[in-house]
Write a structure and sequence with these properties.
Strand order of the largest sheet: 1-2-4-3
Structural class: alpha+beta
Number of strands: 6
Strand content: 5-15%
Number of domains: 3
Shape: elongated
């Protein structure tokens, strides 16, 4: 399937001590760029999350945001760090021995000392496992959302490619008549300028100019590129860069068709083709 680089999905999981939520969002980008927003306690799981995302996403700027919210009334129980408190008492005794006039530490002073009060740590292993489970759920919905958007983009491209094929089909049978009419006009002008005694030269000049305005090769290449475009869309997968390259080739041939045109209808068709190509190029910027 064709996937868009734009997508969003989120999910949450409840624990007795709080709620864990994870969301993925992405926009178009030339390469794969993954950014994480994680609580400090869960930073250690970032490599595992990154590895999972790299295995599922090929292109796009992806943001993975994880948040943890403690449950109401489930405040962490405070406990005194006895070892830290003993060290503080020892240090105070040394200071008072050297400075007998120093004030004694109060209980409030001791409790404010960094590291004396500690909280019960979160069950990190459980949270990390929950985070990975959430990523699997979110990633499935995220991929589905990108696939749905990709199918819409694919249909837009198919509609535009069909319109291109119609314009090419209108121009192709007209070209022999255009070349013949232009040759007659050119021959008349050359005969008027050179006189009737230069018939061979006039035929040579007409043949040269007929070759210059012949766009059969450009029309054939346009047809081939549109066919390749449809093949790539049907094949699916990571197709954004291939499609972007085809747009460059299509635009090059449309420009050549326009520059060689000596017929108003052909010029209009070339301009229509360039407009359709530009419309497709804008959509392709969002394809993975």
């Amino acid at each position: 399937m064709i996937h868009s680089m734009t997508g969003y999905a989120a999910a949450a999981r409840e624990f007795a001590y709080g709620a864990l939520s994870l969301e993925l969002r992405s926009v178009n980008h030339r390469y794969l760029d993954i950014q994480f927003r994680l609580p400090d306690d869960l930073r250690a799981i970032e490599p595992a999350l990154r590895e999972t995302l790299v295995g599922q996403v090929a292109r796009g700027k992806v943001e993975c945001r994880v948040a943890f919210t403690a449950a109401p009334g489930s405040g962490k129980a405070l406990r005194v760090n006895g070892q830290m408190l003993q060290q503080l008492e020892t240090l105070e005794a040394k200071v008072r021995a050297m400075l007998p006039g120093a004030a004694q530490l109060s209980a409030a002073d001791a409790l404010r000392w960094p590291g004396v009060l500690a909280t019960e740590p979160l069950p990190l292993e459980e949270l990390q496992a929950g985070c990975q489970d959430l990523l699997a759920v979110v990633l499935a919905e995220f991929t589905s959302a990108r696939a749905r958007e990709g199918e819409k983009l694919k249909q837009v491209l198919l509609d535009r490619s069909a319109a291109m094929e119609r314009r090419i089909a209108e121009v192709t049978p007209r070209m022999p008549l255009v070349i013949a009419a232009y040759g007659e006009k050119l021959a008349a002008r050359l005969k008027e300028a050179l006189g009737s005694g230069e018939d061979e030269r006039i035929r040579q000049e007409v043949a040269v100019f007929a070759t210059r305005i012949d766009v059969d090769e450009e029309l054939s290449r346009l047809t081939a590129h549109v066919s390749e475009l449809k093949r790539v869309l049907a094949s699916g997968g990571t197709a954004g860069k291939k499609l972007d390259f085809l747009m460059q080739e299509l635009n090059r041939e449309a420009n050549t068709l326009s520059s060689k045109s000596v017929d108003l209808a052909v010029t209009r068709a070339a301009l229509d083709l360039k407009l359709l190509i530009e419309q497709m190029r804008e959509q392709i910027q969002n394809i993975e």
